[in-house]
């Protein structure tokens, strides 16, 4: 479903990704973790064409992404993205946030798009908030609307870039619950997160990055019980209190 | 100062009201229409779009409107090619020249404001569009510009007041709008104080009406404080 090979990315003179290769099979759930500045957000942003890359190949959901990202719109919603800052459209209510791309990109009729969007909001337990504007919603609700918006495009892959980092602590769980439910439906997912409890529950594979390279990949049990790399052990120690 | 002349001045000044409103509204609308493509060009990636727009705003903003009015009305008519062109029926009329000059001016100022507001829309808005596969055109028409114009409503309300005040300069190219008729009245009566006070009050009243109108629009469409914060550069 996703093939990244020898991905290199510079910001000016700084090398932020240094030869990343990563294959993700259909239905696989990957958690990407690592200290801040390790390049994990940059990696997911390269994978869906929000960042240009300096070298390497990316193939995702059947699309070969060009290095300058000029064909990024061909992904056309096949790759859903959930952002740390939600990035809802502030001048539209929740329902219109969901239907815009369905109507413009998938060319779904308004009635059909609204019916699908309502069903999606119900699934997120946000049916009552369909007419609410983003400013009238809590952070957790906004992020669930953002997840619903991406799901309405029936993506083959979902990418989550620190989806709970901007949330108040009491709202983190409702978003993680939605993501856990999604993971049970066989959707291919890459999640950048510091929520190690979620990683342990949901991930098929945990990928640990540091300094722009992948240091270690393993199934959750092996990753948490028997980390191979010093940097991984150090990271787990630092982040430890948030594991349980 | 005499109350008698005040009363005589009122109907005189009101004769100019219609032309003032025509100039103001036409220049304002034309200016807004021109400001959008200019503002987009100011922001464009291609220097072929950016540079002409930058030169335009530099020339227009850097020189006085009165001078521009004289150039367009008196100056262009000197050029035979202009007199023979299809534009001559328009450029020969002082009213059209006034509207064009004020509109070009307003467009130059608004273009900068539009470009600035576009720059301030958080990058995440475009990224959300890209990740949903929304085309460039719809990104602008459905997501970016609605946000830009909602944010700019107060600036646009301010701009129509500036255009209204600029319209008084049209009297310099023989147009008998409020200031024009007031000057003519003064020439006959030698009583400038009464008639210009009356004219000033009328300008204030029109400005107040426009301000009120835009307040209503802002209340209905404004989205102050609804921006999601700009995402921090996280690696």
UniProtKB/TrEMBL annotation, chain A:
SMART domains (UniProt xref): AAA
Source organism phylogeny: Bacteria, Pseudomonadati, Pseudomonadota, Alphaproteobacteria, Hyphomicrobiales
Cross-referenced SUPFAM superfamilies: P-loop containing nucleoside triphosphate hydrolases
The name this protein goes by in its record: ABC-type polar amino acid transport system ATPase subunit
Organism: Aquamicrobium ahrensii
ATP-binding listed as a keyword: yes
Keyword ATP-binding appears in the UniProt entry: yes
Domain ABC transporter: from-to ranges: 2-236
Any Pfam family: ABC_tran
InterPro entries named among the record's database cross-references: AAA+_ATPase, ABC_ATPase_HisP-typ, ABC_transporter-like_ATP-bd, ABC_transporter-like_CS, MetN_ABC_transporter-like, P-loop_NTPase
Keywords, comma-separated and alphabetical: ATP-binding, Nucleotide-binding, Transport
Stated family: Belongs to the ABC transporter superfamily.
UniProtKB/TrEMBL annotation, chain B:
PROSITE patterns for this protein: ABC_TM1
Transmembrane stretches, start-end: 12-34, 54-74, 95-118, 195-214
Topology of this chain in the membrane: Multi-pass membrane protein
InterPro entries: AA_ABC_transptr_permease_3TM, ArtM/GltK/GlnP/TcyL/YhdX-like, MetI-like, MetI-like_sf
Record bears the keyword Transferase: no
One Pfam family matching this protein: BPD_transp_1
Keywords: Cell inner membrane, Cell membrane, Membrane, Transmembrane, Transmembrane helix, Transport
Entry's localization field: Cell inner membrane; Cell membrane
Domain ABC transmembrane type-1: 17-214
Domain of life: Bacteria
Family statement drawn from the similarity comment of this UniProt entry: Belongs to the binding-protein-dependent transport system permease family. HisMQ subfamily.
NCBIfam families: HEQRo_perm_3TM
Protein name, as recorded: His/Glu/Gln/Arg/opine family amino acid ABC transporter permease subunit
């Amino acid at each position: 479903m996703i093939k990244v090979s020898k991905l290199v990315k510079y910001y000016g003179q700084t090398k932020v990704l240094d030869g990343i290769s990563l294959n993700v099979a259909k239905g696989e759930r990957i958690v990407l973790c690592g200290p801040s500045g390790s390049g994990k957000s940059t990696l997911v942003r390269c994978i869906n064409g929000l960042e240009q890359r300096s070298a390497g190949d990316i193939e995702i959901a059947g699309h070969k992404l060009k290095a300058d990202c000029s064909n990024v719109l061909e992904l056309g919603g096949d790759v859903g993205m959930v952002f740390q800052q939600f990035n809802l459209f502030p001048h539209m209510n929740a329902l219109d946030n969901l239907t815009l791309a369905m109507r413009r990109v998938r060319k779904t009729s308004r009635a059909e798009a609204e019916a699908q969007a309502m069903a999606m909001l119900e699934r997120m337990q946000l049916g009552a908030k369909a007419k609410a504007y983003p400013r009238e919603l809590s952070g957790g609700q906004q992020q669930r609307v953002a997840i619903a918006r991406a799901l309405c495009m029936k993506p083959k892959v979902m990418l989550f870039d620190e989806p709970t980092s901007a949330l108040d602590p009491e709202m983190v769980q409702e978003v993680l619950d939605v993501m856990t439910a999604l993971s049970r439906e066989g959707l291919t997912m890459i999640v950048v997160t510091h929520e190690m409890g979620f990683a342990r529950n949901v991930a098929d594979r945990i990928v640990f990055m540091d300094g722009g390279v992948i240091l270690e990949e393993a199934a959750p049990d092996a990753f948490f019980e028997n980390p191979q790399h010093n940097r991984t052990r150090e990271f787990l120690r630092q982040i430890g209190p948030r594991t349980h | 100062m005499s109350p008698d002349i005040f009363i005589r001045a009122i109907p005189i000044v009101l004769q100019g009201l219609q032309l003032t409103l025509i100039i103001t509204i036409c220049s304002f609308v034309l200016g807004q229409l021109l400001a959008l493509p200019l503002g987009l060009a100011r922001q464009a990636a291609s220097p072929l779009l950016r540079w002409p727009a930058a030169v335009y705003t530099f020339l227009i903003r850097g020189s006085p409107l009165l001078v521009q009015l004289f150039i367009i009305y008196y100056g262009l008519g000197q050029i035979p090619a202009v007199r023979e062109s299809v534009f001559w029926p328009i450029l020969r009329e002082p009213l059209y020249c006034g509207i064009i000059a004020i509109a070009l001016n307003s467009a130059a100022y608004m273009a900068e404001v539009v470009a600035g507001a576009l720059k301030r829309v958080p990058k995440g808005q475009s990224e959300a569009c890209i990740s949903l596969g929304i085309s460039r055109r719809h990104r602008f028409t459905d997501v970016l510009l609605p946000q830009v114009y909602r944010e700019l409503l107060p600036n646009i309300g301010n701009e129509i007041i500036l255009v209204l005040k600029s319209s008084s300069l049209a009297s310099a190219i023989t147009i008998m709008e409020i200031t024009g008729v007031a000057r003519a009245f003064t020439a006959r009566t030698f009583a400038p104080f009464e008639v210009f006070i009356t004219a000033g009050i009328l300008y204030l009243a029109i400005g107040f009406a426009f301000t009120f109108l835009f307040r209503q629009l802002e209340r209905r469409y404004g989205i102050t404080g609804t921006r999601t914060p700009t995402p921090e550069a996280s690696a």
